[in-house]
Write a structure and sequence with these properties.
Blueprint: H1 6-10, E1 29-34, H2 38-41, H3 50-54, H4 56-68, E2 72-78, H5 90-93, H6 95-98, E3 123-127, H7 138-144, E4 149-155, H8 157-170, E5 174-183, H9 197-211, E6 214-216, H10 218-224
Parallel strand pairs: 1-2, 1-4, 2-3, 4-5, 5-6
Helix pairs in contact: 8-9
Length: 233
């Protein structure tokens, strides 16, 4: 399955939502690359999100374009201590983390996937909950750099991408979620029927667009930040 199918991309079109301002300053922009870690992205990983691997080329192109034009690039890594002392009730809701099966701080699985690793000058924030704002230094970094716009990409759309985007909006940042640069996975039946990754992605983007963020594609975003109309090859 492609990282984003036609139905999902159609969510980004139309003029029903989004910011009236059509051109934005990359210098006042932060790109949040959410949780592109081995435990989410690698083949056979405990939290494998295969569609996350598929989006890496376009995600890297977008991040490189924004970085080259002065945007602040911030990667996040969701981690927990091996002894579980920092996990709290979240460990009861998310058993793989609660049992120490994934995202253990210092483990290979918690590291950023090599194909989309941070570059010189990028920041890396370790977080312990879905939102990158929760008990991290993120807010201080954004204030120090006079950030006005927050672009969110990565995995998973319905959890950490959504939580970070919503917290960015609540802190009065213009917030963007990039449809072809975020991904999720299949969800098994939890009492209301199973959902495919495509269904989860489409539903998540609809909710984000209607309540939280300006949802657009990477190419659409590039045009709005005074960049070339085609991503670099």
């Amino acid at each position: 399955m492609a990282a984003v199918d036609a139905a999902v991309l159609s969510i980004t079109r139309g003029d029903n939502m989004g910011y009236d301002i059509k051109i934005f300053d990359p210098i006042r922009t932060a790109v949040m690359v959410i949780d592109m870690q081995n435990d989410f992205i690698a083949v056979g990983a405990p939290l494998e999100t295969s569609t996350g691997r598929a989006l890496i080329p376009i995600l890297n192109k977008l991040v490189d374009a924004l970085r080259d034009r002065g945007a602040t690039i911030i990667y996040t890594a969701h981690v927990h201590k091996e002894d579980g002392t920092d996990i709290g009730r979240y460990g009861e809701i998310h058993p793989p983390s609660g049992r120490g099966e994934a995202l253990v701080e210092g483990s290979l699985g918690a590291e950023i996937y090599p194909e989309c690793a941070p570059k010189k000058g990028d920041r890396l924030i370790k977080k312990h909950r879905y939102s990158a704002f929760f008990e991290t230094e993120l807010q201080q970094i954004l204030k120090e750099r006079w950030i006005q716009n927050v672009v969110v990409v990565g995995v998973t759309t319905e959890n950490c991408v959504h939580a970070t985007a919503r917290d960015a909006l609540f802190r009065d940042y213009r917030t963007f979620v990039i449809a072809d640069c975020c991904a999720t996975r299949d969800h098994p039946d939890a009492g209301w029927g199973a959902l495919s990754a495509s269904q989860v992605q489409q539903t998540s983007l609809i909710i984000l667009k209607q309540s939280t963020a300006d949802v657009c594609t990477s190419e659409e975003l590039v045009k709005r930040f005074c960049f070339p109309t085609v991503l670099p090859t």
